[in-house]
Amino acid sequence: MSAPAYGVLRQVTPTASVLLERNPSSMTLEGTNSWVLRGPGAAGSVVVDPGHEDIEHLTLLAGTGAVELIILTHHHPDHAEGAPWFAERVGAPVRAFDESLCVGGKSLVDGEVVEAGGLEISVLHTPGHTGDSICLRSEGQILTGDTILGRGTTVLHDLGDYLRSLRKLIELPDGTAGLPGHGPELPDLAATAREYLAHREERLDQVRSALKVLGADATPRQVVEVVYADVDKALWAPAEWSVQAQLDYLRSEDGE
Question: Which domains does the chain possess?
Answer without folding.
Answer: 8-198 (3.60.15.10), 200-254 (no CATH)
